What does this fold into?
Amino acid sequence: MRNGLVVWIAAAALVAGCMSSSSATPPGNDGGGGDTAATVTYTKDVQPILEAKCFPCHAGQGMGGHNIATVYADALKPVTSLDAPQGCWNDVDMTMPKTIGECALISIMTGWMPMAAGCGAATPPDPSKCVTPAQIAIIAAWVAAGMPQ
Ligand code: HEC
It folds into this structure.
């Protein structure tokens, strides 16, 4: 009985470890570790996600003043919306805007974007509209790497 419990805990830890590492691994990674940040780019990894999830508002319509899903340069522009969530600005006096790319990550994580999709809710009305945890990990790695093109 006691041994059985130990085996069960070890197996559960193994499964949990596998799950967390695979969900955080961007495509093209060899699983060796240490090489993810350098290989994540806008064109190869991030744009396909944004095109799928931020269309059509930021893929030509220019809502919120940017088309991050189609124009790389827009990721580097400063945030302009006073509605943007905490972290997109210096929140004390709404100065020092971050870039649209950095704010995109924050906006997704807080559920503000995709707009009106309810992705911050425990059960979003249409989960297919939401950015998945694996996709968020890719965008986070891209931001951490300095948003390479
Ligand atoms: C249904 C349309 C729609 C979709 C889909 C959408 N957005 Fe937005 N987004 C908007 C609108 C409208 C604004 C401006 C909101 C405001 O200022 O109140 C905005 C603003 C933003 C801003 C702030 C821009 C600034 O300069 O302050 C960011 C960042 C952003 N969106 C990221 C995203 C990302 C990333 C996605 C996809 C994961 C996405 N949005 C999907 C409509 C949309």
Notes: Residues 1-25 have pLDDT under 50 and may be disordered. The two ends are 55 Å apart (CA to CA). The pocket of heme C is lined by residues 50, 53-54, 57-58, 63-66, 79-81, 83-84, 100, 103-104, 107-108, 113-116, 131 (CB under 6 Å).
